[in-house]
Amino acid sequence: MNDKNVVLVRNLIKDYGAKNFKTRALKGIDLAVYPNDFIAIMGPSGSGKTTLLNILSTIDKPTLGEVVLDGRDITKVSNKELSKIRRDKIGFIFQDYNLLDTMTLLDNIALPLALNGVSGKECIQRAETVSALFGLGEHLNKYPYQLSGGQKQRGAACRALITGPEILFADEPTGALDSRAGRDLLECLKNINEKKHTAILMVTHDPFCASYAKDVYILSDGLIKCKLSAGESRKEFYDRIIDVQTSMGGDFS
Amino acid sequence: MKMIELAFRNFKSNLKSYFSLIISLAFTIIVFFNFQNMLYSDTFKMLGEKNIGRIHTVVAVVSFVLVCFMFFFIWYSSNVFLNRRKKEIGIYIFMGFPNEKVGRLYMIETVLTGAAALGLGILTGVLTTHLFQMITLALSDIAVDIDFQLALRPVLNTVGVYLVIYLIFTLKGYLNITRSSVLGMLTGAKQNEYVRQNILVLLFKAMLGLGVLGTGFYLAVREGEGGAESQFGIVAAAIFVTAGVYMVFGGAIPFTFQEIARNKRFLYVKRRCLWINNVIFRMKKNYRTYAMVCVLSLCSVTALVAGFAMRERYDNIMKFNSTYTIQVISDRENLDADLKELIKQYTEIDYCSQIPITGLEGSVVKASENVSKYALVAYSDLKNLAADIGKEFPLKEPGEGQVVRVTHMYLLSLMTDREHRKVGIGGRDYEQIEETDISYLGYLQDQVSFYMVNDQEFAGLRTLGQKLHCYSYHIEDARAYQNVKEALYPYMEKIETGGDYIGVVSLDPESNQIYWVKVIFSLCIFVFLVFILAGGSIMFMKLYNDSFEEKERYDIMKKMGVDEETLGKSIADELGAAYGIPFAVMSIASCFSVHTLGMMMNTHLTTIHALSVLTVLAVFLVCYLLSVSVYRKNVGV
Ligand SMILES: Nc1ncnc2c1ncn2[C@@H]1O[C@H](COP(=O)(O)OP(=O)(O)O)[C@@H](O)[C@H]1O
Ligand SMILES: [Mg+2]
To answer: Is pLDDT at B327 greater than 70 in this prediction?
Structure first.
């Protein structure tokens, strides 16, 4: 824990709505993410998971509080710098893949690098390396419509990781996948986290999915209620998550 | 609430999107109406029957082209409109309205819109006829007074044509709505079935398209054989070029871009990956539009160049014909002194000439041109005449059995091969080695087909026809023309003896014989403007429509962290290709059409060609900049 943190959140508050009809979606979140972390955020529907992720990933702005990314407070940097941080330091995976349907998988994966001005040769090389890690080597010249959901999501992960971000944000990455494809994706993410030391922050409502993480934060009503850390086996961790979920009153979905 | 009330409410609340549809519909109506009005009004009565006949032919052709233009334009604008409204319509269906009912709602709304556009168009059309005719005449450089008058026929024609076209597309929209699903409506029906086209099929298409286009170009620049065959050749060239352009946009261009996209080292340079892939995607869906814009701008450039060329040609013909003011043909060889004395009573003589000619009847000569009078001149005589009036004389002396054709200027000639033709004179074949349209004999040269032979041949052929002498004068004071002419006739009668051939040709400087050329010139300018505006706005509408479909893709890229500047540049590149490719193809294709025009009118049109291409460029540039800014707004960049 003596490492420099990737993300630091202090007293994060987020309000939605106009002056008189405010809803407070986040009510004071404190959170630190370090390199090597693999965090899952769980919680019932409407508890503020997506809101938190959107703010951390700079897509949304907080109402109050401090979000430090890469040593800079994102509430205070210019838009231009923000997109630079987003480009170089952060990767995203969305529930619905969000691959561009107009280009091949290889093009999709290489796009962020090419946009960063990396030479064509290196783009190809790095795209091939990262896609091999996700078992997509044979599918590179296919278009998204020719790929299965799992392949698309792994492709999206490749695209998010090709720039070598410090942290990967994922909002319900397995939400649209069957359990087999979900497991494949999570194995790959775990692999990346262990080998490349990329921090991963994932929002999920699925305890099985969360059990791949090293730490699980339970969010409820805009506050972090508790933190669970992985033990000796994933099965055991999964059981503990289920226990907490039951004690908090049922299913998170 | 009743259907009609709901329709009215929608109409009021969506005034902005209706407004643009109404304006574009009204625009087509105004243009069409004005041309129709020209066809049925008496504007050109002053110009004489012959002029009117020719002008009307041209206006009728233009009207036909305008009907096509109206058709496409209404198609496009109603498409844009439907897409814009689809989401709202989808919500109605979602709320439980049956499709037929929503379809009817749409029908009522579009009928209201159409009626509003019709009213606005006709009203503005009527108000602008006067202006339109004034501009036409001013551009044509014709001074006639026009009375403001309104015939019923043009109104009825315009309303009829518009209603038929508009109803077709209203019905199409209705069917589109009643047959579509809620989901498709709500998402604006965007299901992307993009399939990269099979490279072999594409290659075949590319080759075929280039072949067809090449054939068209070959037909356009080929040295014509003359006559109907060439006329057929020009129509064939136009068809081949048009088809070829469509095929190039459906084959060669997507092929090129797909090949570019396969070369990843080239592709992965900055935002290239983004916009080239987008162009490929769009090209598959939009190639017909791009091709149409290309053909429209090609037509407009050709029309403008043709207009200018005709105008220039017209001026030259006028100059040609007015080389002399008075020309006298007689069988006597010694009239010069008398004639000079007679003319000098009224005005000084600028320059004059005389030359012996042999007049031949049409039956004696076998040549491809269709005239009834021929004449022969001798090489040295014509050379002397040229020296007398200070004209250049670049012609070679013909050898035995050879002739040089001394012809007039054509406004437009389908004969482009001017050498090595055979001419039969008195039963013997002569080879035409050269042709000139330098005005040695002015108006006479316009009326009679002259052949120059060498002096010996001339002497030999002297008995074949009538031995004549031609005296030509250019007077200094044009106002004296009538007086001279009136004095000339009694004199000629006096010297006429026993059926001798005699004639006077004179050119009235005020003649309006080929005024129609001037009118056509201004019509060409209008056609140019209409076509280029149509091309630009069709492209604009297409891209405007596309931008709504693209919004989601740009949202993804923004979420990915691509900054707006990069996205903006990528949009600029992509739209640049959308406007640039049709422009480039048009520029190349227009070289051929202009070349053909140049051959037909025997002039060089490079300057005017360059100017009209630049005008198109300017119009496209304006549309492009507008498109980029609207596109960026619509996709939220
Ligand atoms: N754009 C928004 N405008 C207003 N309220 C919102 C908006 N987004 C989310 N909320 C509210 O904030 C709360 C948290 O939402 P969200 O973060 O989406 O929850 P989760 O992802 O955990 O299901 C909810 O009560 C939701 O209604
Ligand atoms: Mg959520």
So the answer is: yes
Q: How confident is the model at residue A17 (pLDDT cuts 50, 70, 90)?
A: confident
In the predicted structure, residue B4 carries a pLDDT above the cut 80: no
**Which residues of chain B lie closer than 8 angstroms to A143, CB-CB?**
194-196
Q: What is the pTM of this model?
A: 0.80
Tell me the two tokens of residue B247.
């095929």
Ligand number with the minimum distance to the CA of A49: 1
Q: Where are the domains of chain A?
A: 35-57+78-247
CB contact under 8 Å between B264 and A106, yes or no, is: yes
How far apart (Å, rounded) are the C-alpha atoms in residues A237 and A39? 13
Task: Tell whether the model's pLDDT for residue A124 goes beyond 90.
Answer: yes
Q: What is the mean pLDDT of residues B213-231?
A: 67
Lowest mean pLDDT among A32-41, B85-94, B422-431: B85-94
CA of A116 vs chain B CAs: smallest distance (Å):
7
CB pairs under 8 A between A and B: 86
What Cα–Cα distance (Å) separates residue B586 from each residue in B291, B317, B459, B609?
Answer: 9, 31, 55, 12
- Greatest mean pLDDT range, A192-201, B35-44, B424-433: A192-201
Alpha-carbon distance A97 to nearest alpha carbon in chain B (angstroms): 10
- From residue B169, how far is each of B98, B236, B239, B471, B531 by CA, in Å? 21, 31, 27, 68, 21
B358-408 pLDDT tens trace:
988 888 888 766 667 889 999 999 999 888 888 888 988 998 889 898 887
Sign of CA dihedral A37, A43, A45, A51: negative
Exposed (0-12), middle (13-18) or buried (19+): which is B189, by Cβ within 10 Å?
Answer: middle
Hey, is the C-beta of A39 within 8 angstroms of any chain B C-beta? no
Which tens digits make up the pLDDT trace of B141-181?
766 666 666 778 888 989 999 999 999 988 888 888 777 76
In sequence order, what are the residues at sequence separation of 6 or more whose Cβ sits closer than 8 angstroms to the Cβ of residue B154?
Answer: B33, B36, B37, B39, B40, B41
Ligand 1: which residue has its CA nearest to atom 9?
A: A51
**What 3 state SS string does B253-264 have?**
HHHHHHHHHHCH
Name B555's bridge partners. none
Secondary element (H or E) of residue B99: helix B99-140
Please give the full DSSP string across A32-99, using - where no structure is assigned.
Answer: EE-TT-EEEEE--TTSSHHHHHHHHTTSS--SEEEEEETTEETTTS-HHHHHHHHHHTEEEE-TT---
CA distance B560 to B541: 29
Which residue carries 């041949």 as its tokens? B457
How many other C-beta atoms are found inside a 10 Å radius of the C-beta of residue B304?
27
Q: Which of A57, A115, A163 has the most B C-beta neighbours within 10 Å, making it the best mutation to test the interface with B?
A: A115
In the block, tokens 């996205």 appear at: B567
For A35-57+78-247, CATH number out of 3.40.50.150, 3.10.450.50, 1.10.10.60, 3.40.50.300 equals 3.40.50.300
- Cα dihedral value B120, B124, B126, B129, nearest 10: -150
Asked if A118 is an interface residue toward chain B (Cβ–Cβ < 8 A), one would say: yes
How confident is residue B194, by pLDDT bands cut at 50, 70 and 90? Answer: low
